[in-house]
Design brief:
Elements: E1 9-12, E2 15-20, E3 23-28, H1 38-53, E4 59-64, H2 87-95, E5 101-105, E6 108-110, H3 112-119, E7 122-126, E8 130-132, H4 146-154, H5 156-165, E9 169-170, H6 171-177, E10 182-184, H7 189-203, H8 226-237, H9 242-256, H10 259-274, H11 277-291, E11 307-311, H12 315-326, E12 330-334, H13 338-357, H14 363-371, E13 373-376, E14 387-390, H15 396-409, E15 415-418, H16 425-429, E16 438-443, E17 452-456, H17 463-475, E18 479-483, H18 491-506, H19 512-522, H20 528-535, H21 551-557, E19 570-571, E20 579-580, H22 582-595, H23 604-625, H24 631-641, H25 651-658, H26 660-670, H27 679-687
Parallel strand pairs: 3-4, 4-5, 5-7, 6-8, 7-10, 11-12, 11-14, 12-13, 14-15, 15-16, 17-18
Antiparallel strand pairs: 1-2, 2-3, 8-9, 16-17, 19-20
Helix pairs in contact: 1-2, 2-3, 3-4, 4-5, 4-9, 5-9, 8-9, 9-10, 11-24, 13-14, 18-23, 19-23, 23-25, 23-26
The protein binds (2S,3S)-3-hydroxy-2-methylbutanoyl-COA (T1G).
(2S,3S)-3-hydroxy-2-methylbutanoyl-COA (T1G) is lined by residues 32-33, 35, 71-76, 87, 108, 110-112, 115, 134-135, 138, 140, 142-144, 146, 290.
Length: 702
Amino acid sequence: MCETADTGTAVNGVVRVQTRGSISVIEVDSPPVNALSRDVRAGVSSAVVAANEDPDVVALVITCAGRTWMAGADIKEFGGPPLEPTFTRMIGVLDGSVKPIVAAVHGTALGGGLELALACHHRVAATGTVLGSPEIKLGLLPGAGGTQRLPRLIGPVAALDLILTARNVAADEALALGLVDAVVPSDELRRAAIATALEVAASGQPVRRVRDLSERIAPDAVPADLFTEARMNLSRSTPDLLAPQYCIRCVEAAVTMPFDDGVALERELFYELVDTSQSRALRHVFAAERRVKRPPGESASARDVQAVGVVGAGTMGSGIAMALADAGYRVHLVDSDRGALERSDTSAAARYQRMVGRGELSEAAARARRDSIGRSEELVSLRACDVVIEAVVERSDVKKALLRQVDEVLGADAIIASNTSTLDLDDLASVIGDPSRVIGLHFFSPAHIMTLVEVVRGRHTSPDALATALDMCRRMNKTGVVVGVCPGFVGNRMLLRRTAAADALLLQGAMPWEIDAALVSFGFKMGPYQMSDLIGLDVLWNRETTSSATIREVLCEQGRFGQKAGAGFYDYAESRRGAPSEQVADIVRGFARRSGQTQRAFGPDEIVDRLMAALVNEGAKLLDEGIATRGSDIDVVWVHGYGFPRHRGGPMFFADERGLDRMLASVEELGIPEQEPAPLLTRLVSEGGRLATYEPGVPSSG
Ligand code: T1G
């Protein structure tokens, strides 16, 4: 951490300057992450100019107070007009400095923060610092000279790697790359930066501007196929994303054009990206993911949770136990079936060994992780737990009986969570003496991998139980979204509507593979029928009562249970990916004919409209009912729980982009009785409102 200067002259509300002998120490103090807002840019620019005009100053140090060096541009400024001084102007001031500037970097030096450091002449980093160019995660590119300076400092190969992977580089790798000149203990950072500034000034050498470096970008230093290769990789990995392609153009310009021309191209392409739907969608998701940490309603402090119990050592329970162990909790996994406990331990051990093999864990850490999950057949072992999560079979009678037992075993203030995905949490809570300690934690399978958790707030759930659940999600590196109680909560209730809309299209002339293809080209990893084959068509099928009433029933009656049976909606005999099946086509056509509906072809755009309309309409109903509290929460649920492509922003953001009037028209074409238009959707269409920014009680920006 950077100690905060105890004195100094305020340049403005977020930048102050302290003179240490002949060194001007410029300190940015703009919590929480010293984002490069207009005021920060103005303060730094003025301080650098003043130091250059001060005859007593021989060199400058730029440093930050608080947890981190500047973590990038202020994302809240995007979408509006560029505010003076722009990044270009601020970087130009640093470029114009005739006195050496040393950046004293700590925390997360990201995006524009890294670019500011690159415009300094030397960089000293504290141990533990990470540096990176995450702009493509926001659908952008490093727009303050980063695409031109990085190649000159660390070479175009490393520069492309950093920019296209958006990964964080640890301090020691940064030192090896030449991104920083020294790494020092945190508590010596300011002193070391000042010493560097004095040393460089005393050398009498001209300032070493990164923009003037040329060795790393000399033609013979650049692999001939670097950019062709990079473009080919993108065409395979993220063909739809614009920002990575624009980044390649800029880095290529760094090795083919003069510096200023490269900066001009970078700026032109940056402003082009800022206005794209992809960047607005990615920035929307970024902000929405942070908003979900602050649910509306009474706030409370999270309790200190050390030991967590999990009841049920099946797939979900074991996954939850591993997710908790990964987060450093002591875990007590209970199951009356010793075989289930042993299988759970075996799969955990295998997973940790795989992580050791991948270099993600040391042997010792893997052993400690495995040992942090205690296993027992006795509920009494839960006594010392601060939280207990039940993940037993999805039957109300079984869950209620268990919850009664758990209630007797636990301490009075332990929190009791249910992982139910379909049952009424309030009904389950009714068997607990104090229902305020009951909450839902709907993990998604596999629980140790999927990032979404629907945090179900019951009628009596206390604010501190809610805060504790959200804090646990944060510790598990998961995204907890608070939802209300209803069948399927938010995600699955919307998914059911999308499935119904897809099935309705089958009766009007579409084929399963056409529907899947439309969603895959939209950006999903798979469509509804590919997902059904993966999960298994027989999951909800009843052998006793089946009566060939639906396409799924007929497929199950023919043993076409999906991938596991070698056939489902698709045939898997020839290819693992599955091939359209003539047999299934005949079944679909038969049902369509008997439905008496007009048959016609559907293009991908119309298929997407219909399925999105079903999603969005149900989302609007969830908002109307208060089950979801923000439109952007629903987007987070779908991006994190259902593979909604991030660069599309989530269903609500997508609907706004497509046009709510067009969505409403598609809802009306669904022709599904229980999917009549949601009142909120109709109202927002008439008011010109937006779903993605909708929050009851908060004016929805048009
Ligand atoms: N601008 C404004 N606010 C930001 C911010 C940013 N860049 N980054 C974080 N915040 C807020 C965030 O909204 C939250 O506020 C609080 O800080 C803590 O964030 C010109 C164009 C830095 C690793 O992409 O990756 O520079 O909601 O909960 O988990 O070429 O925030 O509490 O009120 O995430 O400890 C490039 C984005 C921008 C970095 C900290 N930079 N931020 O993680 O805390 S584009 C980024 C992060 C750019 C240049 C280009 C993370 C973090 P609140 P948090 P965290």
